[in-house]
TrEMBL record:
<feature type="binding site">
    <location>
        <position position="417"/>
    </location>
    <ligand>
        <name>substrate</name>
    </ligand>
</feature>
<dbReference type="GO" id="GO:0005829">
    <property type="term" value="C:cytosol"/>
</dbReference>
<feature type="binding site">
    <location>
        <position position="163"/>
    </location>
    <ligand>
        <name>substrate</name>
    </ligand>
</feature>
<dbReference type="Pfam" id="PF00232">
    <property type="entry name" value="Glyco_hydro_1"/>
</dbReference>
<feature type="active site" description="Proton donor">
    <location>
        <position position="164"/>
    </location>
</feature>
<dbReference type="GO" id="GO:0008422">
    <property type="term" value="F:beta-glucosidase activity"/>
</dbReference>
<feature type="binding site">
    <location>
        <position position="119"/>
    </location>
    <ligand>
        <name>substrate</name>
    </ligand>
</feature>
<dbReference type="InterPro" id="IPR001360">
    <property type="entry name" value="Glyco_hydro_1"/>
</dbReference>
<dbReference type="InterPro" id="IPR017853">
    <property type="entry name" value="GH"/>
</dbReference>
<feature type="active site" description="Nucleophile">
    <location>
        <position position="371"/>
    </location>
</feature>
<feature type="binding site">
    <location>
        <position position="295"/>
    </location>
    <ligand>
        <name>substrate</name>
    </ligand>
</feature>
<dbReference type="InterPro" id="IPR033132">
    <property type="entry name" value="GH_1_N_CS"/>
</dbReference>
<keyword id="KW-0119">Carbohydrate metabolism</keyword>
<feature type="binding site">
    <location>
        <position position="18"/>
    </location>
    <ligand>
        <name>substrate</name>
    </ligand>
</feature>
<keyword id="KW-0326">Glycosidase</keyword>
<dbReference type="GO" id="GO:0030245">
    <property type="term" value="P:cellulose catabolic process"/>
</dbReference>
<keyword id="KW-0624">Polysaccharide degradation</keyword>
Length: 466
């Protein structure tokens, strides 16, 4: 029998910068991505989100498609500089109204909104003051969160503070491939700490607001498998788990850092630096749920070679490098693995294993699968977008999620990435994830893919028809 209860939410997800466009419409201020994506060589073929797929002007059409597909929930992010162009202070009422109208449209179609407050588009005005390296940014974030609670809290019950800290801090402050394009692990760690502070402050403000809902945090779920049984590779995989999982989950689900790792970083660089009261702030403001974004696992070996921080952003198979850090670990291709055009391994078992690892470490925390999907170059055959590979990918991962539920995990919703083809950050528009195709040569016309109808049947049958 199916493990999916009646209240289980079948949804899909997007993010503001990747779909909205309207980058300067109606008083919106610039974000760090509005500036960064215009730097020469920053993104694949110079693509940017100035227009994206114009969800800002076409959201009613998109919501109607969501309703047709049967979506029960929609996870989207709010653009902080659309509400507060300078990051704090004066409110842009036109921006507030856009999300209010979007929420109303969703509710009219019985689609439950799930809001992500931060999906990487920091107001450029705050970056100019130092961005996440400054504690004042965490304080500005709480002002922004309170504004959202005040304007939308009576209609929205599911909230997440941040999306994928490992990405926007890791790529922003370690690899330098995302804004603010810094390469300094000490600065990364301090910036990351301010994100955790901002999260805890926002959770505190949420509970003080009296909103009848839940607030959580969204992290990448990336299990690590040693390539061999050698002690060196096992130790490398354990260290990768510590950095990519425990460092990012412990502060929001336990209210503390992994003791061994934090002692090492403080001995090396003197970070993270705590302000008075940070310990109790984290401890007293644990989130209500955790969102898991699962795409792949990584196979790990010990690394005595040079640090290599480049990835595959072209979609040309085997063009990626063995990402890793000298003296720590590196990620290598699994000789038995099946890989996408972007060199991401397809391994559904990792979703089951990862969910159960979270349950084992953190107890019966409610879980939402907030992202899961296949980035691919979808074939068009006789005018039909035949994305069979995506259907196969999602089917296998629904099976894997159900198996974790069978083993006792409290999984409450599934949000494939993504509802619609969108700008894939550094990868441009050729990396397609959506149930809905967007024709950039025909006025951004929307077209239902084969997967659209597959997911429609899956939802209607509550997970039975796969």
């Amino acid at each position: 029998m199916s493990q999916f209860p009646e209240h289980f939410l079948w949804g899909a997800a997007t993010a503001a910068y990747q779909v909205e466009g309207g980058f300067d419409a109606d008083g919106k201020g610039p974000s760090i991505w509005d500036i960064f994506a215009h730097q020469p060589g920053a993104t694949y073929q110079g693509t940017n989100g100035d227009v994206a797929v114009d969800h800002y002007h076409r959201f009613r059409e998109d919501v109607a498609l969501m309703a047709e597909m049967g979506m029960q929930s929609y996870r989207f992010s709010i653009s902080w500089p659309r509400l507060l162009p300078k990051g704090r202070g004066e409110v842009n009422e036109a921006g507030v109204a856009f999300y209010s109208e979007l929420i109303d449209a969703l509710l009219e179609h019985n689609i439950e909104p799930m809001i992500t407050l931060y999906h990487w588009d920091l107001p450029q005005a705050l970056q100019d003051e130092g961005g996440w390296e400054m504690r004042s940014t965490a304080e500005a974030f709480v002002e922004y969160a309170r504004l959202c609670y005040e304007r939308y809290g009576s209609r929205v019950k599911l909230w997440a503070t941040f999306n994928e800290t490992i990405v926007f801090i890791g790529h922003g402050y370690v690899t330098g491939s995302h804004p603010p394009a810094v390469k300094d692990p000490a600065r990364a760690i301090q910036a990351c700490h301010h994100v955790f502070v901002a999260h805890a402050l926002a959770v505190k403000a949420f509970r003080e607001s009296g909103i009848k809902g839940q607030i959580g945090f969204v992290n990448v779920l990336q299990p690590h498998t040693p390539l061999t049984d050698s002690p060196e590779d096992k130790a490398a995989a354990a260290l990768a788990d510590g950095i990519y999982t425990h460092w990012l989950y412990d502060p929001v689900l336990k209210g503390e850092y992994p003791a061994e790792l934090v002692s090492q970083t403080q001995a090396l660089w003197g970070v993270p630096r705590f302000a008075p009261g940070d310990d109790s702030l984290l401890k007293e403001n644990i989130g209500d749920f955790i969102g898991l974004n699962y795409y792949r696992r990584e196979t790990v070996v010990a690394n005595n070679e040079e640090t290599q921080l480049k990835a595959n952003h072209s979609g040309e198979r085997n063009s990626g490098h063995e990402f890793g850090f000298k003296g720590l670990f590196k990620f290598v291709r699994n000789p038995n693995g099946v890989y996408t055009d972007w060199d991401w391994e397809i391994w559904p078992q990792g979703l089951t294993d990862g969910i159960m690892q979270i349950k084992a470490r953190y107890g019966d925390v409610p879980i939402y699968i907030t992202e899961n999907g296949l980035g691919a170059k979808d074939p068009i055959i006789d005018g039909e977008i035949v994305d069979d590979a995506r259907i196969d990918y999602l089917r296998m991962h629904v099976d894997a999620m159900e198996e974790a539920m069978r083993q006792g995990a409290d999984v409450r919703g599934y949000y494939p990435w993504s509802f619609i083809d969108l700008l894939s950050w550094l990868n441009g528009y050729q990396k397609q994830y959506g149930f809905v195709y967007v024709d950039h040569h025909a006025g951004l016309a929307r077209k239902r893919k084969k997967s659209f109808f597959w997911y429609q049947k899956l939802i209607a049958s509550r997970g039975e028809q796969r």
